[in-house]
Design goal:
single chain; about 375 residues; alpha/beta; 5-stranded mixed beta sheet; 13 helices
């Protein structure tokens, strides 16, 4: 197949004509790399190049730098590309200090970076709101810099964002119990720009490419983590993968008119709980996780009144899932089956078999339906 006809996520992004950007996690990693290099070598690399989880090697210009005997600080201005990201243009700083041998890498929240104050997030209460993938990316780059310049790799990284506390008021962080600023996020390092009309058009093109290639099984995935899960589960080729993002309805409506034999919908548990509740647009600005709905599902799975009340009052969908798993209630499967039934309702009898897989942030399957 020619490169022009190839499907999958990269083809969808190219088709939109939109410019991608970089996550806060990628910017924080670049700033950390530059600061630790200066601390060990006496000079800041500018631009500084990092390696993202999928192998891309972007370079970032430094917007701020400071070097003393005690620490080094580097700052990167976030470029979110054509995505309407509230953090676009924010100055993300990393201040790196040496620690005693054996200390490892310790993360601190500086001004403008939030702290976790409630359970239900992928980080313990009290930790800086720096998600697991960016943490690992920074650890990896600290180790590379240490190897290159003779350091121990034992450092304290304090991340801060200029005006981050004010910017965070435009996000869901305060409601989630992340206080004091923004989260440092990202699983791939790349911000995929979502113009609704452009991305929906790219989904349609993806379906067309898959059908033209003779694919009988396609998968609509909410992101790169769920895409990896589908590939591991079913071995689907690139042109059978649809990056549906938040646009579950766009996939279902187009497949209704242009059927394939089988559609797998795979995504994060919280997002797919929205589909299960009847939402076709899964974006956080346009639909929210309905904990009351999850409590009703949990009751169907055997939850008693006390557990149902806990689920209804949970901080996040992940917290509700963890509560139910501890009690032996298969909330993940219940959400997957409910999402499958909603998908079938949108398909209106089109000759398409559907199954749903729910994953957590690490890509572990936490719920799945049968095929119907």
């Amino acid at each position: 197949m020619s490169g022009e006809a190839r499907g999958g996520r990269s083809a969808q992004l190219k088709h939109t004509g939109l410019r991608h950007g970089w996550t806060t996690g990628a910017c924080a990693t670049a700033a950390t790399t530059a600061a630790y290099t200066a601390l060990l070598a006496g000079d800041f690399p500018d631009p500084v190049t990092i390696t993202l989880p999928k192998g891309q090697t972007p370079s970032f210009a430094l917007a701020a730098e400071e070097l003393t005997d005690a620490y080094a600080m580097a700052g990167i201005v976030k470029d979110a590309g054509d995505d309407p990201d509230v953090t676009h243009g924010a100055l993300i700083r990393a201040t790196v200090r040496r620690l005693p041998a054996g200390s490892g890498v310790v993360f601190r929240a500086g001004p403008g970076v939030g702290t976790v104050t409630r359970p239900g997030l992928p980080l313990p209460v009290g930790e800086p709101a720096v998600n697991p993938v960016p943490r690992q990316l920074m650890r990896d780059h600290v180790a590379r810099v240490a190897e290159r310049h003779g350091g121990s790799g034992d450092v304290e990284i304090t991340l801060s964002v200029d005006d981050g506390e004010e910017i965070a008021r435009s996000t869901w962080n305060p409601r989630l119990g992340i206080l004091g600023g923004l989260s440092v996020l990202g699983t791939t390092g790349i911000v995929v720009p979502y113009s609704c009309s452009a991305w929906i058009d790219s989904i349609r093109r993806g379906v067309d490419v898959a059908r033209a290639a003779g694919r009988t099984h396609v998968a609509g995935c909410t992101g790169s983590t769920s895409e990896k899960t589908v590939v591991a589960e079913y071995g689907l080729p690139e042109d059978a993968l649809l990056d549906m993002g938040d646009f579950a309805g766009a996939v279902l409506k187009y497949v209704r008119r242009h059927p394939v034999e089988r559609l797998t919908v795979c995504g994060g548990f919280a997002k797919l709980s929205k589909l299960a509740a009847g939402h076709l647009d899964l974006h956080s600005a346009r639909s929210q996780v309905d904990k009351g709905f999850l409590a009703r599902l949990a009751r169907r799975g055997g939850a008693d009144d006390a557990l149902a009340r806990e689920v209804a009052g949970a901080n996040t969908g992940l917290a509700a899932l963890q509560m139910c798993r501890a009690a032996g209630v298969p909330l993940g499967d219940l959400v997957a089956f409910a999402a499958r039934d909603e998908a079938l309702a949108v398909l209106r009898g089109a000759p398409v078999a559907v199954d749903v897989i729910c994953v957590d942030r690490a890509g572990t399957v936490v719920g799945r339906s049968t095929v119907a």
